[in-house]
Protein backbone atom coordinates (compact mmCIF):
# COMPACT_ATOMS: atom_id res chain seq x y z
CA UNK A 1 0.00 0.00 0.00
CA UNK A 2 2.76 2.47 0.92
CA UNK A 3 4.64 1.73 -2.30
CA UNK A 4 1.45 2.25 -4.32
CA UNK A 5 0.81 5.62 -2.66
CA UNK A 6 4.43 6.65 -3.27
CA UNK A 7 4.12 5.83 -6.97
CA UNK A 8 0.80 7.66 -7.30
CA UNK A 9 2.17 10.76 -5.57
CA UNK A 10 5.23 10.65 -7.82
CA UNK A 11 2.96 10.63 -10.88
CA UNK A 12 1.10 13.68 -9.58
CA UNK A 13 4.33 15.56 -8.85
CA UNK A 14 5.79 14.64 -12.26
CA UNK A 15 2.66 15.84 -14.06
CA UNK A 16 2.61 19.12 -12.14
CA UNK A 17 6.28 19.66 -12.89
CA UNK A 18 5.68 19.15 -16.62
CA UNK A 19 2.77 21.60 -16.52
CA UNK A 20 4.78 24.19 -14.60
CA UNK A 21 2.38 24.14 -11.65
CA UNK A 22 4.48 22.66 -8.88
CA UNK A 23 6.13 25.88 -7.72
CA UNK A 24 2.90 27.80 -7.13
CA UNK A 25 0.59 25.07 -5.82
CA UNK A 26 -0.16 24.07 -2.24
CA UNK A 27 -0.14 20.29 -2.01
CA UNK A 28 -1.65 18.47 0.98
CA UNK A 29 -1.49 14.71 1.40
CA UNK A 30 -3.19 12.94 4.29
CA UNK A 31 -5.46 10.00 5.06
CA UNK A 32 -8.84 9.63 6.71
CA UNK A 33 -7.67 6.95 9.16
CA UNK A 34 -4.83 4.63 10.06
CA UNK A 35 -4.76 0.83 10.14
CA UNK A 36 -4.11 -1.64 12.95
CA UNK A 37 -2.25 -4.10 10.69
CA UNK A 38 -1.96 -6.67 13.46
CA UNK A 39 -1.13 -4.30 16.33
CA UNK A 40 -2.75 -5.82 19.44
CA UNK A 41 -3.78 -8.71 17.13
CA UNK A 42 -6.33 -6.41 15.46
CA UNK A 43 -6.97 -5.38 11.88
CA UNK A 44 -9.12 -2.64 10.30
CA UNK A 45 -9.49 0.91 11.61
CA UNK A 46 -12.32 1.22 14.13
CA UNK A 47 -10.27 1.29 17.31
CA UNK A 48 -8.92 3.97 19.60
CA UNK A 49 -5.30 2.86 19.39
CA UNK A 50 -2.46 4.82 17.83
CA UNK A 51 -2.18 2.83 14.56
CA UNK A 52 -5.86 3.56 13.85
CA UNK A 53 -5.77 7.21 14.87
CA UNK A 54 -2.47 8.52 13.55
CA UNK A 55 -2.33 9.57 9.90
CA UNK A 56 0.30 11.16 7.70
CA UNK A 57 0.10 14.86 6.89
CA UNK A 58 2.46 16.13 4.20
CA UNK A 59 2.41 19.69 2.87
CA UNK A 60 4.34 21.17 -0.04
CA UNK A 61 4.43 24.90 -0.77
CA UNK A 62 7.74 26.09 -2.26
CA UNK A 63 9.01 29.30 -0.73
CA UNK A 64 6.58 29.05 2.18
CA UNK A 65 6.82 25.63 3.83
CA UNK A 66 10.52 25.00 4.58
CA UNK A 67 11.83 21.82 2.99
CA UNK A 68 12.41 19.07 5.52
CA UNK A 69 10.41 20.75 8.30
CA UNK A 70 8.92 18.22 10.72
CA UNK A 71 6.39 18.98 13.46
CA UNK A 72 4.93 16.87 16.24
CA UNK A 73 1.96 19.11 17.07
CA UNK A 74 -1.41 17.61 17.88
CA UNK A 75 -3.56 18.25 14.80
CA UNK A 76 -7.14 17.28 13.94
CA UNK A 77 -8.56 16.92 10.43
CA UNK A 78 -11.03 19.71 11.15
CA UNK A 79 -7.98 21.99 11.21
CA UNK A 80 -7.23 21.41 7.52
CA UNK A 81 -9.93 23.67 6.04
CA UNK A 82 -9.02 26.78 8.08
CA UNK A 83 -5.34 26.07 7.40
CA UNK A 84 -5.84 25.91 3.64
CA UNK A 85 -8.02 29.05 3.75
CA UNK A 86 -5.30 30.80 5.74
CA UNK A 87 -2.63 29.70 3.25
CA UNK A 88 -4.65 31.01 0.31
CA UNK A 89 -5.64 34.26 2.00
CA UNK A 90 -9.32 33.34 2.07
CA UNK A 91 -11.79 34.12 4.87
CA UNK A 92 -12.09 31.40 7.48
CA UNK A 93 -15.08 29.13 7.02
CA UNK A 94 -17.57 28.35 9.79
CA UNK A 95 -15.76 25.53 11.53
CA UNK A 96 -14.38 24.67 14.95
CA UNK A 97 -11.02 23.87 13.37
CA UNK A 98 -7.92 25.99 13.94
CA UNK A 99 -5.39 27.05 11.34
CA UNK A 100 -1.88 25.69 11.84
CA UNK A 101 -0.43 27.56 8.85
CA UNK A 102 2.03 29.41 11.09
CA UNK A 103 3.48 26.05 12.12
CA UNK A 104 3.80 25.00 8.48
CA UNK A 105 5.91 28.12 7.90
CA UNK A 106 8.02 27.37 10.97
CA UNK A 107 6.78 30.51 12.73
CA UNK A 108 4.87 29.05 15.68
CA UNK A 109 5.83 30.64 19.01
CA UNK A 110 7.70 28.33 21.37
CA UNK A 111 5.74 27.00 24.30
CA UNK A 112 2.34 27.45 22.63
CA UNK A 113 0.97 24.10 21.43
CA UNK A 114 -1.53 24.08 18.60
CA UNK A 115 -3.87 21.92 20.67
CA UNK A 116 -3.67 20.78 24.28
CA UNK A 117 -5.51 17.60 23.35
CA UNK A 118 -7.28 15.88 20.48
CA UNK A 119 -10.73 14.33 20.48
CA UNK A 120 -12.15 11.56 18.33
CA UNK A 121 -15.48 9.77 18.41
CA UNK A 122 -16.52 6.60 16.66
CA UNK A 123 -19.53 4.28 16.76
CA UNK A 124 -18.50 2.56 19.98
CA UNK A 125 -16.64 5.19 21.90
CA UNK A 126 -14.88 8.48 22.42
CA UNK A 127 -11.15 9.13 22.67
CA UNK A 128 -9.12 11.89 24.26
CA UNK A 129 -5.39 12.16 23.76
CA UNK A 130 -2.68 14.62 24.68
CA UNK A 131 1.10 14.32 24.48
CA UNK A 132 1.28 12.23 27.63
CA UNK A 133 -1.78 9.98 27.89
CA UNK A 134 -4.90 8.67 26.21
CA UNK A 135 -8.37 7.89 27.54
CA UNK A 136 -10.67 5.59 25.55
CA UNK A 137 -14.26 5.48 26.83
CA UNK A 138 -16.09 2.81 24.86
CA UNK A 139 -19.16 0.63 24.87
CA UNK A 140 -18.62 -2.82 26.36
CA UNK A 141 -22.02 -4.36 25.81
CA UNK A 142 -25.60 -3.19 25.48
CA UNK A 143 -25.63 -1.12 28.67
CA UNK A 144 -22.04 -1.23 29.87
CA UNK A 145 -19.02 0.95 29.27
CA UNK A 146 -15.30 0.41 29.71
CA UNK A 147 -12.36 2.72 30.17
CA UNK A 148 -8.85 2.31 28.81
CA UNK A 149 -6.06 4.65 29.83
CA UNK A 150 -2.52 4.49 28.47
CA UNK A 151 0.64 6.30 29.48
CA UNK A 152 1.96 7.26 26.04
CA UNK A 153 5.34 8.30 27.43
CA UNK A 154 6.22 5.00 29.13
CA UNK A 155 3.90 2.73 27.12
CA UNK A 156 3.71 4.10 23.55
CA UNK A 157 2.47 0.72 22.20
CA UNK A 158 -0.50 0.83 24.59
CA UNK A 159 0.06 -2.56 26.16
CA UNK A 160 -0.94 -1.78 29.76
CA UNK A 161 -4.36 -0.36 30.62
CA UNK A 162 -3.91 1.78 33.75
CA UNK A 163 -7.53 2.96 34.01
CA UNK A 164 -8.00 1.35 37.43
CA UNK A 165 -4.85 2.87 38.90
CA UNK A 166 -4.44 6.20 40.65
CA UNK A 167 -2.53 7.49 37.63
CA UNK A 168 -5.27 6.34 35.27
CA UNK A 169 -8.05 7.88 37.35
CA UNK A 170 -6.13 11.15 37.33
CA UNK A 171 -5.98 11.05 33.52
CA UNK A 172 -9.75 10.47 33.31
CA UNK A 173 -10.35 13.31 35.76
CA UNK A 174 -8.20 15.58 33.58
CA UNK A 175 -10.11 14.76 30.41
CA UNK A 176 -13.63 14.50 31.85
CA UNK A 177 -14.31 18.27 31.86
CA UNK A 178 -13.25 18.32 28.20
CA UNK A 179 -15.79 15.61 27.45
CA UNK A 180 -18.49 17.56 29.21
CA UNK A 181 -17.57 20.65 27.19
CA UNK A 182 -18.02 18.56 24.05
CA UNK A 183 -21.48 17.41 25.11
CA UNK A 184 -24.01 16.51 22.49
CA UNK A 185 -25.91 19.75 23.08
CA UNK A 186 -22.76 21.68 22.30
CA UNK A 187 -22.17 19.72 19.12
CA UNK A 188 -25.78 20.23 18.05
CA UNK A 189 -25.49 23.99 18.64
CA UNK A 190 -22.24 24.19 16.64
CA UNK A 191 -23.74 22.33 13.69
CA UNK A 192 -26.95 24.38 13.72
CA UNK A 193 -24.88 27.58 13.46
CA UNK A 194 -22.83 26.41 10.49
CA UNK A 195 -25.68 24.47 8.83
CA UNK A 196 -28.90 26.20 9.97
CA UNK A 197 -31.05 24.44 7.36
CA UNK A 198 -29.79 21.00 8.26
CA UNK A 199 -32.19 18.74 10.13
CA UNK A 200 -30.45 17.36 13.16
CA UNK A 201 -31.00 13.75 14.24
CA UNK A 202 -31.31 13.14 17.98
CA UNK A 203 -27.88 13.12 19.58
CA UNK A 204 -27.58 11.25 22.85
CA UNK A 205 -24.46 11.49 25.01
CA UNK A 206 -23.34 8.15 26.35
CA UNK A 207 -20.46 9.02 28.65
CA UNK A 208 -21.04 7.61 32.10
CA UNK A 209 -17.94 8.41 34.13
Describe the structure.
The protein is α+β, with helices and mostly antiparallel strands and 209 residues long. It folds into three domains: 1-60, no CATH class; 63-115, no CATH class; 116-209, Arylsulfatase, C-terminal domain (2-Layer Sandwich). It has six helices and six strands, in the order H-E-H-E-H-H-E-E-E-E-H-H. A four-stranded antiparallel beta sheet has the order 3-4-5-6, covered by helices on one side. Strands 1-2 form a two-stranded antiparallel ribbon. The longest helix has 17 residues, at 2-18. It is globular, with a radius of gyration of 20 Å. Residues 200-209 have low confidence and may be disordered.
Q: Count every helix, treating DSSP H or I runs of 4 or more residues as helices.
A: 6
The helix content is: 25-40%
Count of DSSP E strands?
6
Radius of gyration: 20 Å
First CA to last CA: what distance? 39 Å
Main features:
209 residues, Arylsulfatase, C-terminal domain, 4-stranded antiparallel sheet, 6 helices, 6 strands
What is the strand and helix layout of this fold?
Blueprint: H1 2-18, E1 27-30, H2 50-53, E2 57-60, H3 80-88, H4 101-104, E3 118-122, E4 125-129, E5 133-139, E6 145-151, H5 166-181, H6 184-194
Antiparallel strand pairs: 1-2, 3-4, 4-5, 5-6
Short description:
The chain is 29% helix and 15% strand. By secondary structure, the chain is an alpha+beta fold. It has three domains: 1-60, no CATH class; 63-115, no CATH class; 116-209, Arylsulfatase, C-terminal domain.
